[in-house]
Amino acid sequence: MKIVLMSMPDAVPIIMHESAFHLPNCGIASLAANIDEGHEIYIADLIRKRRRLESFLKKTLLGIRPRLVGLSAMAWQYETCIAIIRYIKELLPEAKIVIGGYHATLMHEEIAASPEAQMIDFIIRGEGEEPLRRLVSALDGKDDPEEIPSLSFKKGTEFIHNPIGELTDLSKLKIPVRDKRRLTSGYHVVTSKIEVMETSRGCTRSCSFCSMRNMYGRSFRTFPIERILADIDDIYYRRKTRMIFITDDNFVLDPGRVIRICDAIIARNYRGLRLNIQADSVTIARNEEMVRKMSLAGMQTIFLGIESASKKNLAASLKGNIIEESRRAVNLCHKYGIMVIAGLIFGFPDDDEEDIIANYEFLKSLDVDVPYCQFLTPYPRTLIRSQLLQEGMVANPDDYKWYNGAWANVRTRHLDAATLQFMVWLYRRGIFGWWEPSSLVKKEKGAWLKIWTHFMRPLMKLIIGKRQERLGPAECYRLEIEALAAMNRFRGITDTDTPGPPAFVTGGQS
């Protein structure tokens, strides 16, 4: 059977320009790897085909003519996913369509009752490796859809939702597909090649804004260290790639495990290996030896979820008072030469103008290397969504295409969504301005740093800065918001009559 699995092309430039940061989707690569042998399987990361999506889809699908097409999408990518399914059905009316991912898992009942359900044949909820493997067998007449846990399938025109299956035994999963079956290439962060892998799934933390517990429950499962090393070997030796992003929701949940992984990596003596991870501030702050080992193993960058400088906001998100531990975590990372991307969230119920300023000033005082600032987003089925809906604080309750962290879908007790969006933009511009290298980055004294400091930044200030001064803040904001709103429209696929920026951040003016 011919099978094509695809991830969505939608991007969001929260850290850097949308063209500077393209990662492969580890999910569809793992799904493809764990389908039984004897099938012709291809995967495509459509993030790499943003500029010619229609032509790529047409050439690829008509060339392969798959019997089954699988699509994975998050909530904010779902509208694009449906547009792509509609296009696939125009090209290949007989192709079976299966969707999966976070949004399909959390919203399967709503999807099954929606108008687009007529185009969808199957929905996989939760982890997909085993349900998809068995679905492929069922399409070959070797299994029964009614017996496949976590699968939703049609009887006539109605969806039947089988009970959810058990969580996967990660030790049995094969290494993700990264060979010629992957139809897209050129994954990068700025000018560096990059690949993606995972060492664990799930998180036991209780953050109120997170949707992960609805995917895996409140669990934490790990891959065997031998499998982790095999994954690195595949990337390092076969793909000739030195930079790896580890997708674990929280890599450092078990510090002892982290040290064992680091010792194993150090023993392999990978030269030039650069690892990038996500972690919580508390565990980093309390485990200096772990941080030291992480540095020796090649950990280059850590994303820290700091979230807020406000005790009331941290309490609302069930993070606890982690302000001082966030400061210590950043200092420890810098002590051992690890760069920090610090995550900050705006739009908690009590946020006002002073809180926005205070959060930015706190983040700047930490001397982090890169700020990662986004809005509190009421993702489906999360605790924070239920709370905000009860209080009438969700400005955009159901248009999920704006749920990517870049848009103020909520209001606060002091600010409407439009004012919140503008103030977060305005004070970031005023407090952070043009990127200033941290003390850690300045120690590197690389050629690129001199180019940025003495040439690029002055040139940009001269050209772009003067234009900004001429236009004024309000017009600069309007132009940036319009560009952001148009970012994920794709000619021939999604370029419909969608208006400008959403009304909830423009005060009703589109």
Detail the topology: elements first, then pairings.
Elements: E1 2-7, E2 21-22, H1 26-33, E3 40-45, H2 53-64, E4 68-72, H3 78-91, E5 96-100, H4 102-106, H5 108-112, E6 122-124, H6 129-139, E7 151-155, E8 158-161, E9 188-189, E10 192-197, E11 200-201, H7 213-216, E12 221-222, H8 225-238, E13 243-246, H9 255-268, E14 274-279, H10 281-285, H11 288-296, E15 299-307, H12 311-316, H13 323-335, E16 339-346, H14 353-365, E17 370-375, H15 383-390, H16 417-431, H17 439-444, H18 447-471, H19 473-486
Parallel strand pairs: 1-3, 1-4, 4-5, 5-6, 10-13, 13-14, 14-15, 15-16, 16-17
Antiparallel strand pairs: 2-9, 6-7, 7-8, 9-10, 11-12
Helix pairs in contact: 9-11, 14-16
Explain the overall architecture.
The protein is an alpha/beta fold and 510 residues long. 39% of the residues lie in helices and 16% in strands. It contains 19 helices and 17 strands. It has helices at 26-33, 53-64, 78-91, 102-106, 108-112, 129-139, 213-216, 225-238, 255-268, 281-285, 288-296, 311-316, 323-335, 353-365, 383-390, 417-431, 439-444, 447-471, 473-486; strands spanning 2-7, 21-22, 40-45, 68-72, 96-100, 122-124, 151-155, 158-161, 188-189, 192-197, 200-201, 221-222, 243-246, 274-279, 299-307, 339-346, 370-375. The strands form 3 sheets. The protein has an 8-stranded mixed β-sheet. A 7-stranded mixed β-sheet has the order 3-1-4-5-6-7-8. Strands 11-12 form a two-stranded antiparallel sheet.
